[in-house]
Amino acid sequence: MEMASPAKVYQKEMHNNVGFFATWLPGDHMELGAVGVMKDGQFRQEATLKDLGIKYKPSDEGSPQPLKYTSSKGTSIESSVGAKVPAVTADIKIDFSSEGAFLFDALRVRQVRIKNRFDVTADILELYEEGKWNKEWYVVESLHMADSATIIVSQDQSAGIVMAASSELPIPSTTLADPKVDLSVKSSHGKLFQIIGGRNLQPLYACLRLKDNLFKAPKVVPVRGTVSRETSIKMFARPSIEELIGS
Amino acid sequence: MRQVYFSHSYRDRSINSYFLDRFVREDFALLADQKSSTWCVAKLERYMLESSGFVSIIPRRASTEKLGYSPYIGHELALARRAGVPRLFFVDNIILEKFRDDFPKDAVPFVYDEPGFYASLHDSAIKNFRLKLEDPGFTPLALRKRKKATVIAPKNKELLQAADGVGAMLATSDYEVSRLTGQQLHSALDDVRLLETLRDSDICVFVLGDRLSYANVVLGMAYAHCIPSVRLRFDRRAADTNPDVTGLIRWSNLDGLITAFDEQFDDFKFGMQEAVGMAKSTSSDEAVLDISRSRREKIAGDLWNPKDGPGLVKHLSVDHAYVEDRVGRVHNQMGTALGTNPGRKKSMEICRHLYDGLRKRDDFVYELEPQSMMTDKQAIRQAREFDANNSATCIDLACLFASLLEAAYQRSVIVVLDMPGFAHALAGYWAPDEPNDHQQLDLGTVRGAARRGDLVLFEATGIAHSENRVAGETDKERKLADDRRLDFTTAKKAAITLLEDPDIRLRFLVDVHPLRTSPT
Prior knowledge:
The complex is a heterodimer of chains A (about 250) and B (about 525).
Chain A: H1 5-18, E1 21-22, E2 34-39, E3 42-48, E4 65-70, E5 75-79, E6 89-96, E7 102-113, H2 117-129, E8 138-154, E9 159-166, E10 182-189, E11 192-210, E12 236-238, H3 241-245
Antiparallel strand pairs in A: 1-11, 2-3, 2-8, 4-7, 5-6, 6-9, 7-8, 8-11, 9-10, 11-12
Chain B: E1 3-7, H1 13-25, E2 29-32, H2 41-50, E3 53-58, E4 61-62, E5 67-68, H3 71-83, E6 87-92, H4 93-98, E7 108-110, H5 119-133, E8 148-153, H6 157-172, E9 176-181, H7 183-186, H8 192-199, E10 203-208, H9 214-224, E11 229-234, E12 249-251, H10 254-269, E13 273-274, H11 275-281, H12 284-291, H13 321-334, H14 344-361, E14 365-366, E15 391-392, H15 394-407, E16 411-419, E17 422-430, E18 437-438, H16 443-452, E19 455-458, H17 475-479, H18 488-500, E20 505-511, H19 512-517
Parallel strand pairs in B: 1-2, 1-3, 3-6, 6-7, 8-9, 8-10, 10-11, 11-12, 14-15
Antiparallel strand pairs in B: 2-13, 4-5, 16-17, 16-20, 17-19
Helix pairs in contact in B: 1-11, 1-12, 2-3, 6-10, 11-12, 13-14, 13-15
């Protein structure tokens, strides 16, 4: 089944903005060291590095930061209060005028990655030589985790949502992902994918896979003692967004 | 209106603009030499003789390791003092305090960060200078002469052959050429006609041997009289023919001498710009900007087509002695082989040392690409081509860093970004544990790699002095340091800020290593 068009728009634009693959569906669980295939624009986990006996070291979590994007066209956001007026309740109206138009608003986003990449890639090559690594597999080597996020993707040419927001802080200065803002859907029209104020999400990830022309390499596995494990990275590739959405 | 020679540092535009404003009010005619890659002392001597006065603005040239002022401006000051023309020196108060003996007592101080602090002192100094110039008893030392040149060389086969070459070049430009050689030179101190010949010349060219001779005596006479002179001294050990700060050119072969003289003579013939008139027709800021932008000159080597990313590799200078030296210093600092035990931390340390080394030791100044009629070609300075001004564009410095990083066994990259109205180049490298097989190198991929630390980018112009922000940094960050340069952390932050700008487009990322290794 080919990936639905709204998801493609979301995936492409998020990749262009942050350079990571957007988890689809955005609420799906994703973990560092996950091993799987790409299918219909989704990463489908089949194993983990741990399952396969490969030890990886996660990096420290990066500094938390907010991430906020809307699609380059077709998204408009209106609040019932003006920018300067402090208010603790407001209606927030979001209109989408194209398929795939989206809103991505996440708070306390931290990045974590596999720190010992040389070791992991060398171990994967060994498994491959032993016939225990599927050449189609991807490994999730970097992940963005968000404490909270609101992600809405329009799946119609025209869709919209009105949310009631209440907070102890003035509404215009808060984000739609702020857990201190209580959000509830008042009304909506058209078909939407939505996560409102979701907690502990992994909305973005990056992965590696073995190179396409691996068979051309004279010797895949670095020979211990003669070739350093650092050369293993040369046998890997960084997949493109087209590869994901065309899967 | 009398002409005054305007000596200034091209890099300190806001200070120059401040003073130019004040000269505009007093209706001076200030002659300024547009920035060029050639340092031609004969031309300065000529304008010194033909001017009624000399004005100089002397700011600090600060770096982390030293505080001083431009040796080139220093030479111009000495020239003015030797010529004895009326002068007005505005000197950075810190420099004046530190180098008191370098300046005459009538030097007027200014505050580098707040030039207007002594505004009334500056205005009255300019008014008094004007009154001095209006004294009818004073005339310039010389007026423009006919196209006469004198070539002086001792009697020696090679030197005479070189003098013939120089004479022929002068004659081609319709100069009437006199030759002084052999016995004529021996009577230098007794035969006044020889001095008159020198003084009657628009330009004198001294072709000197490696030993002192009577030609050097004649040179001393010309020097004392501030007669425009090009000095070409044979030196078999000379590595290049770039003039030193006094204008002396050392040459080791005839071809080198001819090329060097050709550059000098071209610059000599080139006129000055009248800064006050320019400021009146636009603004002082614009005039200063125009003068401080390099003159488009003959371009050596291949030009680069800005659409040809891989073509940049031809403009790197990996094997140049300058690059080897800077990389060698980092090797010594780190005390370890740069190419072994790769890791992110080590790569970052190498890059930081390279960056800091250039920022502290090399006095680069950022400039925009000189204006040109060519829209599809651009000149890129390689390491050997940085001139006396050490001027560099963003692409010059990105190529320099790509060369340095490659020589230090890093996977260097150059990223060229397009923004509304301009393009900009960043330098950087791939982390050693990032695959070199990227299925697509689009903006998203570059942004993601930079976020993960798989790609480290930095603002290469951060090592160069710039009065204002160049790209991703803020004006405040530029002005935080006296020398208007960025520390490495700020240079990295500036690159990320630019990369995250929603209006940018990726023109290309040039991944140097695969381009070197792939068959062409």
